[in-house]
Specification:
Elements (H helix, E strand, L loop, with lengths): L2 E5 L2 H11 L7 E3 L4 E3 L4 E3 L2 H8 L4 E2 L7 H9 L4 E5 L9 H4 L2 E5 L7 E2 L2 H7 L4 E8 L9 E8 L6 H22 L13 E2 L4 H4 L7 H10 L6 E4 L5 E9 L5 E7 L6 E2 H8 L1
Parallel strand pairs: 1-2, 1-6, 2-5, 6-7, 8-11
Antiparallel strand pairs: 3-4, 7-9, 9-10, 12-13, 13-14, 14-15
C-alpha cells in the first residue's frame, strides 16, 4: 500500500517511525516549513522533517499543503491513502477529496475535537482519554471513525507520560486500520467538546484561587509549554512540577525563575530571602 504521511509534531514523528518500520513505510512525507524557534530564533526543522530525513523518506515542506504544487507532489506519489497526524494546518479542497485520508486523533471523539486534545483532557481532570482513527472531512475532527480505543489517565500523568502512551496506542490502531480497513461509523454529535489551542491565560495559574486546576495545568503543560505564576514585577515564575498537600493546597516542587534554570522551589524561596 502506497502511503503519503502528513505530520509535524513530536507525536507525529513517533507514529512515522512505527509506520516506517513495517510494511506501510510512507513513500512521501509532507510537513510544515522550518521556522525560527527558541531565544535565538534559530531556523528549526519540525520533528517530522528530522525523522523523515533520518529515515531517508522523500520529504516536502510547502508553505501550504493546499498549494497546487504541493497537491501535485502528493498526487505524483500515487498514494492509496494519505495519513494525517498532528499536521497543524487545515487540509482543503481539492486535496481533501483527491485521496482517501485517515486522521490519527488522540482523544475519544467526539470529546476533544481540535488542536490540544491531550492537554485539554488533563486540564479537565478526565479519568480517560484515547485515540480515534477517522476519515478526514471538511469539519473539525468530525469525520466518521473506523477504530477507537481508550487509555486511562493517572493522577500523576503529565503531557509527556500520557502522550507517550497515546503514541503507542495510535500507531497500533493506525496499523490495524491500514491492514484491516474496518468500516466507518458517524460520530455521536451529542457528546462534542472542543480542545482549543493553549493560550497564555491557560498557562498562567492562580494556585490560591484554584489549587486543583493549577496542579492539573502544571501536569498538562509539562514539558512542552509550561505553566507559570505571575510575579509582582510583571515577570513569570515557571512551574515544572507541583503537588497538592494533604489539605488540598498547591505546593510547587520544581520551578523555573525568570531567566534562570530549573531548581527546587525551596531553593528558590531561600534565594529570594
Amino acid at each position: 500500500m502506497q502511503i503519503a504521511y502528513l505530520g509535524t509534531s513530536d507525536f507525529a514523528a513517533a507514529i512515522l517511525r512505527r509506520l516506517a518500520a513495517g510494511p506501510h513505510r510512507p513513500v512521501l512525507v509532507v510537513t510544515r516549513p522550518d521556522r525560527p524557534a527558541g531565544r535565538g530564533r534559530t531556523l528549526t526543522a519540525p520533528p517530522v522533517a528530522l525523522t523523515a530525513r533520518e529515515l531517508a523518506i522523500d520529504l516536502d515542506q510547502p508553505e501550504s499543503v493546499n498549494q497546487p504544487e504541493a497537491v501535485a507532489r502528493i498526487a505524483a506519489a500515487q498514494p492509496d491513502v494519505v495519513v494525517v497526524c498532528a499536521f497543524g494546518a487545515l487540509i482543503k479542497e481539492p486535496l481533501l477529496s483527491a485521496h482517501p485520508i485517515l486522521n490519527v486523533h488522540p482523544s475519544l471523539l467526539p470529546r476533544w475535537r481540535g488542536a490540544a486534545p491531550i492537554e485539554r483532557a488533563l486540564l479537565a481532570g478526565d479519568a480517560q482519554t484515547g485515540v480515534s482513527i477517522m476519515q478526514l472531512t471538511a469539519g473539525l475532527d468530525s469525520g466518521p471513525i473506523c477504530l477507537q480505543a481508550g487509555a486511562p489517565i493517572t493522577a500523576d500523568d503529565t503531557y509527556a507520560t500520557l502522550s507517550a502512551r497515546l503514541e503507542d496506542l495510535s500507531a497500533t490502531l493506525l496499523l490495524r486500520a491500514l491492514d484491516d480497513q474496518p468500516p466507518f461509523a458517524d460520530q455521536d454529535e451529542s457528546g462534542v467538546t472542543y480542545a482549543e489551542k493553549i493560550t497564555a491565560q491557560d498557562r498562567t495559574i492562580d494556585p490560591e484561587a484554584d489549587p486543583v486546576g493549577a496542579e492539573r495545568a502544571v501536569r498538562a503543560l509539562h514539558p512542552h509549554i509550561g505553566a507559570r505564576i505571575a510575579l509582582d514585577d510583571g515577570s513569570f515564575l515557571g512551574v515544572q512540577q507541583a503537588r497538592l498537600d494533604d489539605e488540598g493546597r498547591f505546593v510547587p516542587v520544581t520551578v523555573l525563575p525568570p531567566g534562570g534554570r530549573p531548581m527546587a522551589y525551596d531553593d528558590y524561596l531561600r534565594g529570594r530571602r
